[in-house]
Design brief:
Length: 291
Amino acid sequence: MFHVLLLILGVMVLSINWYPGHMVKARKEIKENIKLVDVVVILLDARAPFSCRNMDLEKMVQGKKVVMVLNKMDLVLPAARKEYIELLRQEGYPAVSVDSVSGKGTKGALQAIVYAFKGKAEEMQKKGRRLRPIRVMVVGVPNVGKSTFLNCLVGKKMAKTGAKPGVTKGKQWFRVREDLEFMDTPGLMWPKIEKEEQGFRLALLDIIGENAYDYYDVALYLIRVLKEKSPQVLRDRFQLQDLDEEEVKILEEISKKRGYFLRRGEPDLAKTCKMLVQEFRKGNLGRISLD
Ligand SMILES: Nc1nc2c(ncn2[C@@H]2O[C@H](COP(=O)(O)OP(=O)(O)OP(=O)(O)O)[C@@H](O)[C@H]2O)c(=O)[nH]1
Ligand SMILES: [Mg+2]
């Protein structure tokens, strides 16, 4: 009875809350600066672009020209990437994909941004107004690569970047080209993630702070994804044979195969969970899309 109650309570509290202090200021800063910009780039993680759409942000930028940029395209299979882009285009957004580490796709992203402003630029010209650089604001949830994308466009490391959410704490302007100015912004979350699956995806992608979730739950979710989408990874990388087992059993097996044991000989599940999530984040488990 007690266990059933715990389970019910557990299911009820699985929504994730993560809204660190700097985001309150960041949200205000973004809101105040929207009127200064011509185009908004919403940067999304190509592995789960729909899970990292922040509807609060999208509402804030309503009325602006928006370009959707799927970053980290090196971590997803081309077919999934194409499908996501097609879906965003069906919604009426210009959408492109980039790899901000190698620079692949950035030329196309700049073209899409300039094109989004074309109508307004022509209007300004007709009115005899002096053409000024296009002002672009880059927004998105934390850790999707906004600062890396901008460093890549500028061609040198101007903004601080890092493999954890919440690196950028305030806005910063960059001149990318004669005709293009960009504003980097801190990653913005929404106060409460209601959908459990979405929470797991955001946790896997390192978009929410690690104090807001349990690695155990996220690793079990990852095993479920691998069983469904990439069973060969479980077979080849972790030498598992029986994939019909439950996720918890598979986790134990992986611990044993890796030689992760506690002092009394039990499998060290905590260490295994962290290892699995980190391997996914580094792209070591192959190109896996989550949405
Ligand atoms: N594989 C891959 N990694 C990337 C790419 N772009 C960024 N990263 C990595 O993603 C991590 C986060 O990058 P940041 O540029 O700091 O992300 P951000 O969106 O500015 O994060 P916040 O400032 O915290 O909101 C870093 O470890 C980057 O190296 C990409 O296109 N491919
Ligand atoms: Mg940043």
